[in-house]
Amino acid sequence: MNKRIHEVFVWPLCTRIIHWIMATSFLLSFGTSFFHYLFRWHLAFGLIFGIVLLFRLIWGFVGPNYATFKTFTLSPKELQDYFVQKVQNRWRKIHAGHNAASSWFTLIVLGLGSWIVLSGLLLQGIQEGSGIFKELNEHYFQFSSSLLSLHEVLSYLLFIWALIHIVGVLIEQFYHKTHMLFAMITGYKKAEGSDARVSMVRHLFAYAVIGLSMVTLYSVACSNETFLTQSRFEKRNFQAENPAFFEKCSTCHKLYPPFMLPHDSWVRLMEGLDNHFGEQIRENNITKSEQMSIKAYLLSHSAESSSHKVAFKTLESLGEMRPISMSKVPYWRETHKSIDKNIYHSLHVKDASNCFACHPDFEYGILDNTRIHIPK
Ligand code: HEC
Ligand code: HEC
């Protein structure tokens, strides 16, 4: 016996919550991806999307009726019939379970979504050197650009797919008047079939997943370093690496890490010390032998030898150019173009070359985009 006449209870509360977590986490991770300084949130929402996606995959095998993959109708004939009926008969009766269109829709969301999450996690490891795949950074960083393209293209496809879904629901709601929009809120669908029954164990499983999503959000929001965001790059000890560099190149500004610029830029910089950004650096400041030692050190630790994102992005964007300042690097300009120019001249920043003001621990070789902050 159904609880309501003409309506079927299809979605228990836990399923509805998970549906909305899936929708909002995808849209929020999509939206935050356009801002590097929101990277931490992009990651958090992406992870949550991954968790609920995995849940939905498992639910497809062990969930209640209407949710399992074995009830999906996937033949092309049925898909065609669905659309023919939809066009020809505005007041057609619908079945409570997945029709051919929604079966295909769900499978494509799960397929695209899994690849987006997987490519995202790999990208985090390979490009940023952080997260569960951080060890892959050292050997595979040259794949980050192609991985990024894949991650982006799939995400746009899923975004378009989500828009199609919304349009479909609105057509059901306002043209066919099947109350589809409210069904994901109340759980009741105007359709034919019998009410869904969800066992205690399934309820527990679903609520555990909801709990896990909340814990993920909380831990990423409250901490810079969780095992999901931890970087493989540790603070460098430049004093031990090269004492002359550590001592002499930090008298006027904090240390710029050697991986920041290419080999030939360091050659130019070290050969032009007599006019170093308007400063004259002579042998009485840095002796000849110290200069040689610093130069050799910088050349052997330049961008070419590094798997830091800033190093390969810089090299990639420079082409033949070999500037001695980051603000001349196209990649740098691109990533900083959204920043208000006045901020650079504010009290705490003073100049665009003062990377240290907005990138904490940059002088120790740390450039982590979960930690960017603009001083007020
Ligand atoms: C006024 C603050 C500020 C200064 C100064 C600054 N940055 Fe940034 N930087 C930012 C912000 C904010 C972002 C993120 C921009 C965005 O959201 O796209 C960023 C992004 C970056 C990124 C990209 C991060 C990533 O993982 O994609 C790199 C690399 C970087 N900065 C390096 C530098 C270097 C090197 C310097 C010094 C030459 C510097 N920045 C100076 C604020 C600053
Ligand atoms: C006498 C002071 C002085 C000393 C010593 C000095 N610098 Fe500089 N350096 C400057 C000034 C001034 C700038 C311009 C940017 C600024 O105001 O911080 C600059 C800028 C730079 C930049 C460009 C940053 C950017 O991307 O805009 C690099 C790289 C750099 N210095 C490396 C070195 C190295 C390597 C050494 C040691 C061999 C060194 N500096 C020693 C004064 C100095």
TrEMBL record:
One GO MF term: heme binding
Source species, domain of life: Bacteria
Localization annotation: Cell membrane
One Pfam family linked to the record: DHC
One of the GO BP terms on file: respiratory electron transport chain
Biological source species: Sulfurospirillum halorespirans DSM 13726
Domain Cytochrome b561 bacterial/Ni-hydrogenase as annotated: residue spans: 10-187
Keywords: Cell membrane, Membrane, Transmembrane, Transmembrane helix
Main location class: membrane
Protein name: Cytochrome b
Gene3D superfamilies per UniProt: Transmembrane di-heme cytochromes, Chain C
Membrane-traversing stretches: 20-39, 45-67, 100-123, 153-171, 204-221
Gene Ontology cellular component annotations, sorted alphabetically: plasma membrane
Membrane topology: Multi-pass membrane protein
